[in-house]
Every structure is written in C-alpha cells, then in structure tokens.
Design a protein that fits this description.
The structure is a single chain. This protein has 283 residues and is α/β, with parallel strands linked by helices. The protein contains nine helices and eight strands.
C-alpha cells in the first residue's frame, strides 16, 4: 500500500492564538487571531488570511502553522476568517463574509493593535480567488484601502477554457486538483448563477478593469489547472499599471506547497511568498 505523506504542522510558542465571533452580514462568523507573543511595536501590520478548499471545503484551523509563520516573519497580526461554504451557501455568501471580516479588522484596529495603513489580504486556491475578489470589491466600494494582495494559485475563472484547465484532468492527474474537480466546485459555488452572467466578485478573471488594485504577489505550479488563468491575470495586472511579482514553479501541481511542505521546492515557495508579504508590510 502506498504511504501517504501527511503535511507536518509545526506550531510556534512565540505566537498567541485566540478566537472571536463577529457579526457578518447574515450570520455570526468565527475569526482566528494570531499575534506575536512579544510585540515590538504598539501597532503592527495586519494580514486577513482566507483559507482554500474550492469554495466548498476548509477551515481556518488547517492553516494554523502557515499563519504563525506569517506572524513571525512579517511581524504582523493575522486574522483568518471562517467564511460560509457552498453548496449550502453559494455566492455571494463567501465574499460577503470576507468583506465583513475586513471591515471588522478596520473597526477593531485599536483593540487589535494594528496599523490600518498596512492591511494585506491573502489566501490560496479558493482563498486566492476570494482574495482577488475582495481586492476588487474593496476598490469599488472605496471604504477600505488595501496595501497589498497575495492570491496564491488563485481559483478565479469559472469558464474552464484555458489550455491548462484541459491539460490537468482526471485521467492524467487523478490525485491532484483537476478539471473535473474544478467544474464541480464552480457549479456548487455559483449555484443558480452557474449558467448566467457571472460577477467578477465571484470569478475575478471576468473583471474588465484591473487598474487601481493593490500591489500583488502570486504564484502557481506549471501542473496546476489554474496555471494559465493566473498567468493571464498577472499580464492584465501589469498592463493596468499594478505592480506585480509572479513565480511559476516547474513540476508542481495544485497546492504543492501545503501537501508536501517539507520538500525543497515547497519550502522555497513558502519562503518566497512570506518574504514578499513581509517586504510589502514593513517598508
């Protein structure tokens, strides 16, 4: 029987974690707050972290170790939101919850000890998709200024028409996130809107205008079905005048950095995107 490698979850004694329940637009939301045990400044940058899971799975607990590493390396507070999941709660439940969490972070900035001029939003996979969507929504509402966004291998295009979305399928990548998984997840997330015109707040690749978005870091593996939609997003950000840094990792499939987090390329990817976040928030 093939042995399955379970990702290691190293926890830090230098990070304090707490839980709070906040008021969302339609329901109460859990947020997890990670902060340095020994603060060096009265106010720190903040990262709103959004977990992945294809819009249908996941919980903040799964990213404890990563959030702690961000706290330590970026000297920041991290707030991770437990948004509602499809199919029970299709779009726009998740993005509404993320925006509620973002507003809560700003409203509670004094209590949290954070600098509202240094707000970053970040997440991976569906969390990356929600990060990109939240950046668009915040830009358009004009209520909150986001200093940096980090949508990692983001799930941003429901149309599944790119070359990589066909290339990475059930036949050749049965154990990784593939075309068939992606189509099923988008149908659950979009619900009755799946066959209609889709909002860019649901599928950010559909946004017509990307100017005015915050500086961006993103990455993707070249065996990820999201490879081409991520590359197109990067090109369009650059064309719109948005500062963007992008990394393409050879031989890597979707979620490689989390699934096999002890191999060299995963460590390198993890270090590179956390370093980018730290630079953006501490300049």
């Amino acid at each position: 029987m093939r042995k399955i490698q379970v990702p290691t979850m190293e926890r830090s004694e230098n990070v304090i974690t707490s839980r709070r329940y906040i008021e969302g637009q339609e329901s109460e939301l859990l947020v997890k707050i990670y902060e340095p045990k020994d603060r060096t400044k009265p106010k720190l940058p903040v990262v709103l972290w959004i977990h992945g899971g294809g819009y249908v799975l996941g919980h903040p607990d799964g990213d404890d170790s990563l959030c702690e590493r961000i706290v330590i390396k970026a000297d920041a507070v991290v707030v991770s939101v437990n948004y509602r999941l499809a199919p029970e709660h299709p779009y726009p439940a998740a993005i509404n919850d993320c925006y509620s969490a973002l507003k809560w972070v700003v409203n509670e900035s004094e209590e949290l000890g954070i600098d509202v001029n240094k707000i970053a939003i970040a997440g991976a996979s569906a969390g990356g998709g929600l990060t990109a969507a939240l950046a668009l929504l915040a830009r358009d509402k004009g209520e909150i200024n986001i200093a940096f966004q980090m949508p990692l291998y983001p799930m941003i295009d429901d149309r599944n028409t790119t070359a990589s979305s066909y290339e990475i399928n059930e036949e050749n990548m049965p154990r990784a996130w593939n075309r068939e998984n992606n189509i099923a997840a988008w149908k659950m997330y979009l619900g009755e809107n799946a066959s209609k015109e889709v909002s860019p707040y649901a599928a950010p690749a559909r946004a017509m205008e990307l100017s005015g978005l915050p500086p961006t870091y993103t990455c993707v593996g070249d065996l990820d079905p999201f490879r081409d939609e991520t590359i197109d997003y990067v090109k369009r950000l650059a064309s719109a005048g948005v500062p963007v840094e992008f990394h393409l990792y050879p031989g890597c499939y979707h979620g490689f950095d989390a699934i096999f987090n002890n191999v060299e390329i995963s460590k390198r990817a993890n270090n590179e995107y956390i370093d980018a976040l730290a630079r953006a928030l501490n300049n």
